[in-house]
Design a protein that fits this description.
Elements lengths: L2 H7 L8 H7 L11 H4 L9 H12 L6 E5 L5 H10 L2 E6 L2 H13 L6 E5 L12 E7 L8 H11 E14 L5 H9 L9 H10 L2 E8 L1 H17 L1 H8 L1 H19 L3 E10 L1
Parallel strand pairs: 1-2, 1-4, 2-3, 4-5
Antiparallel strand pairs: 5-7, 6-7
Helix pairs in contact: 4-5, 7-9, 10-12, 11-12
The structure holds S-adenosylmethionine.
The site of S-adenosylmethionine has 23 residues, from α5 and β2.
């Protein structure tokens, strides 16, 4: 199976026109300028929206002089929030061309094109300049990337000495039942979901030091079930604005994630580290 075709078909990444229809509901046309804060409710594809990004910015001490590399940047929500809130410069690398195109368009319309550079490519092979970044960040993208050791070796090289790493990702807390394993692969595209220790070891193998892994499961499990309940409660109104197909795709994604967390097999992790 071609990974790229498969990742584009998972329900989080279909119906990308939902962003413009969400903006249309605010009276913002398809080519209109946008204030970054108008996008934040629509463009964060991880847990705890912009709070999660602010925590990273604080931890890494980002400011206007910081050069940040984001891996798996989606439609650009975290990159724009970092640039808007700290003034830093972000290079945002995204695999899927259609997702990348949405990200680049939104960033231009927000007037953040001078601080956020969107690149389209695979983090395992796209050229990344050595020692060019003060920090690397990633939210809920590493789980999609099959060779984590190779990824982290490349990212360690991309950081200047002392540069920081901040990653949030899914993890495995107990073996998955057969159907859950299938859903993790086919609905979530979780191709590198492992125990927390294995993930931390991959960072150390790439010469990251001071690796601290924090289990987020107790926080994310109730978050995912509340997210599903809120989604279902808003069914009629969302489907009116975006169509039943868009509603159903995200409901499927949210339901599978909530069930995998509830099963006790899926968990969440935050990993911070730095290079020497
Ligand atoms: C769940 S989304 C999160 C997006 C963004 N980090 C956020 O939190 O809003 C994960 C993103 O990683 C991207 N991705 C997956 N594999 C990748 C790879 N090998 N290189 C770059 N991006 C990748 C996916 O296409 C997807 O847009």
């Amino acid at each position: 199976m071609n990974d790229r075709v498969a990742i584009e078909s998972i329900p989080l990444y279909t119906h990308l026109d939902r962003i413009n229809s969400g903006l249309a509901a605010l009276g913002i046309g398809a080519a209109d300028p946008i204030r970054p804060d108008q996008l934040f409710p629509l463009d964060q594809w991880h847990y705890h929206d912009t709070d999660a990004i602010r925590a990273a910015a604080n931890h890494l001490g980002l400011g206007p002089a910081s050069r940040v590399l984001e891996i798996g940047s989606g439609i650009g929500g975290p990159a724009r929030y970092l640039a808007h809130s700290t003034g830093c410069h972000v290079t945002a690398l995204e695999l899927q061309p259609k997702v990348h195109a949405v990200a680049a368009d939104l960033t231009q319309r927000c007037g953040l094109g001078g601080r956020v550079l969107h690149l389209c490519g695979d983090a395992l092979s796209h050229p990344i300049q050595d020692a060019a970044f003060d920090a690397m960040v990633s939210w809920l993208a590493v789980l999609h990337i099959p060779d984590r050791r190779r990824l982290y070796a490349r990212l360690a090289r991309a950081l200047r000495p002392g540069g920081g790493c901040y990653v949030e990702d899914l993890c495995m807390r107990a073996p998955f039942a057969v159907q859950d394993q299938r859903d993790l692969r086919d609905i979530v595209f979780g191709v590198s979901v492992t125990g927390i220790d294995e993930h931390a070891d991959d960072l150390r193998a790439a010469d990251f030091i001071d690796v601290v892994a924090t289990d987020q499961t107790a926080d994310w499990a109730p978050y995912t079930s509340a997210r599903l309940a809120a989604w279902q409660a808003n069914h009629a109104s969302y489907a009116r604005a975006h169509g039943e197909g868009a509603y159903a795709a995200q409901e499927l994604f949210y339901a599978v994630i909530a069930r995998l967390f509830a099963s006790g097999s899926l968990g969440g992790v935050r990993l911070v580290a730095r290079v020497a």
